[in-house]
Design goal:
The chain is α+β, with helices and mostly antiparallel strands. The protein contains 22 helices and 18 strands.
Length: 583
């Protein structure tokens, strides 16, 4: 029997959970700042989904809109907001209908809001979003109108929640994306996300004495940190690229006063700070780093040079506010444009309108963003992005890493990109495999490397190799739902249905909310003539994804094989109606 290799030791995680006091404790002494901060978008980053805060929706008067073959409804049922997706056939008869309660929102509402479903401590995103700039409800970014595509099953991960919520209650540090009750310890981005846990600071001042010079108050003023650690406070959320937690770390481990590289390795495309940067909704930090304002400031120019972290100016004062920020560094007569040019639309004597124009955000519909490259003569945005440039460590984040951690970060970032965008370029997949294998040779027992090797081989269609790597990963995390699911799928694709049933049964026990898992499980049960198990699994999957036509087609076959011809005929009729509704 093979001896399980010991994984590398896990660094100590922050043990300061009891040192957080919540923003309400800060208000006692900092009420003026707190009042201003209540208007800041970060304060509203996440919230309970209260019926009265859903635009244009009131009890008895839902919002209804049509997108492709689907009709979407946002309605109030008692104290709950419900999102509904309805599919009708050519005769307008309802053939698929799914309604889900929506307890939480993500997003401040400045651009819009997304909506969360809670399933046993796991978050899923609704296909319905609110777009504030357009003042409309519409399909959430990235959702497909294909009949069988994912509807209410898009998982919301730790990486999302770490930036869109003040503080989460993680159920188990070793298990990703699962939360205990209450899930939100603080909804909005609170004081302690930028200033660190506040208990020692509060107790010091409640004791009625003033700190002596050099006394550790365990409270951080970011403006007094060195430039990189100061910027890391902002970068923990606003530097969005390929973010790889370092070995033994999670996205929730960062504390103000650290350099971000102590918790995360962040990799970007090498052209992300060039003039050809594509119009992405989350690229402000990379753009700022490409600006002359930043590059010639010797670390003095930063996010808070222009942005007040405690408040935002009222709309009528924004131009004056930001013109004054530019004037702190640039003389009033430095602008070479004529008075008539400066006063013309859309510039209106605004430095920002001229040098940081708003543009459409290419990866999020119905939104726009401000160009943070601060260019002297902004031109039109690029139409097409060139071929993907290689991933490189952002700024100095690769410095100080061991060769193994550098390989690990680069390999995991490349694997994440391949898996996210389903890159089928054989050269890129082979390059990713080579990085991961080098990292594996240096440290054979790292679960995430083993899992990533399984995922990349799966993308390459190498099912036997994919299974091998996932089997190597499983002993290090026997209840990891992604490993169990992918092992089951690999067994399905290689014809080992007995093993596939075993792994998928465990995957269902860990997370009973995945229609794809039920679909695969049903097919494998049918191979062993266990049609009642197959029928039950198929029906469960269809409660999660009513329009999943391949699974409904399988259900018809299972019912026929089981001699349940009346039920099979009814399901076949539903299948015909659903397929007739496809565009």
């Amino acid at each position: 029997m093979a001896v399980l290799k010991q994984p590398p030791p896990i660094p100590d995680r922050p043990g300061d959970a009891d040192q957080f006091v919540g923003s309400s404790a800060c208000i006692v002494c900092h009420s003026e700042i707190a009042r201003r901060y209540e208007q800041h978008p970060m304060f509203h980053a996440a919230s309970v989904n209260r019926p009265e805060e859903n635009p244009h929706v009131t009890s008895g008067h839902p919002v209804v809109f049509q997108t492709g073959p689907f009709e979407y409804t946002v309605e109030v049922q008692g104290e709950e907001v419900v999102h509904r997706e309805t599919l009708r056939d050519g005769r307008q008869k309802v053939v698929a209908d799914q309604a889900v309660g929506i307890p939480y929102t993500l997003g401040s509402g400045v651009r819009g809001k997304s909506y969360l479903i809670n399933r046993d401590g796991r978050f899923y995103q609704s296909p319905i979003s609110w777009y504030n700039q357009q003042q409309k409800w519409d399909l959430s970014p990235g959702y497909s109108l294909e009949i069988s595509a994912t509807r209410f099953e898009r998982r919301v991960t730790d990486d999302c929640m770490s930036c869109h919520a003040g503080r989460m209650q993680v159920a188990n540090p070793e298990v990703a994306d699962v939360y205990a009750s209450p899930m939100f310890l603080e909804f909005g981005i609170g004081c302690e996300r930028c200033h660190g846990p506040g208990r020692a600071h509060v107790e010091l001042h409640e004791g009625g004495r003033t700190a002596v010079v050099g006394e550790d108050q365990r409270i951080v003023n970011p403006s007094r940190l060195d430039p990189w650690k100061r910027d890391s406070v902002c970068f923990q959320c606003h530097l969005l690229a390929r973010r790889v937690p370092r070995h033994g770390r999670s996205v929730f481990d960062f504390r103000p006063g650290q350099g971000l590289e102590e918790v995360l390795s962040v990799l970007v495309h090498s052209d992300d700070t060039s003039e050809g940067t594509p119009d992405k909704a989350v690229s402000h930090v990379q753009e700022m780093y490409s600006s002359r304002c930043f590059q010639e400031s010797l670390g003095q120019f930063t996010c808070i040079t222009c942005h007040d972290p405690h408040g935002v100016p009222p709309p009528v004062e924004k131009e004056t506010f930001f013109n004054r920020k530019c004037g702190d560094c640039h003389a009033a007569d430095a602008c070479r444009a004529s008075v008539s040019e400066r006063e013309a639309e859309p510039f209106r004597n605004s430095c920002v309108q001229c040098h940081m124009p708003r543009r459409e955000a290419g990866d999020i519909a119905h939104t726009s963003q401000t160009d943070h490259r601060i260019r002297k003569r902004p031109g039109p945005p690029p139409v097409d992005r060139p071929d993907e440039s290689p991933l490189v460590f952002f700024a100095s984040m690769g410095n100080g890493l061991t060769s193994w951690e550098s390989l690990r970060a680069r390999g995991l970032a490349a694997a994440e990109e391949a898996y996210t965008f389903i890159l089928q370029d054989p050269r890129k997949l082979l390059g990713t495999v080579e990085l991961l294998k080098q990292a594996h040779e240096a440290q054979p027992a790292d679960h995430r490397i083993l899992q990533a090797l399984g995922a990349v081989h799966y993308l390459a269609g190498q099912d036997a190799e994919s299974r091998l790597w996932f089997e190597k990963a499983l002993p290090y995390s026997p209840r990891d739902e992604e490993t169990l699911k992918m092992l089951g799928i690999a067994c399905y694709r290689t014809g080992d249905f007995a093993s596939g049933l075993k792994y998928l049964k465990l995957a269902i026990e860990v997370n009973p909310w995945n229609a794809e898992v039920y679909a695969r499980y049903a097919v494998m049960a049918a191979v062993f003539q266990d049609f009642q198990t197959a029928i039950a699994a198929a029906r469960q999957g269809l409660t999660l994804a009513p329009a999943l036509t391949p699974l409904r087609r399988d259900l018809v076959k299972f019912l026929e094989e089981a001699g349940q011809n009346r039920e099979a005929a009814a399901e076949r009729q539903k299948l015909i109606q659903i397929e007739s509704a496809a565009p």
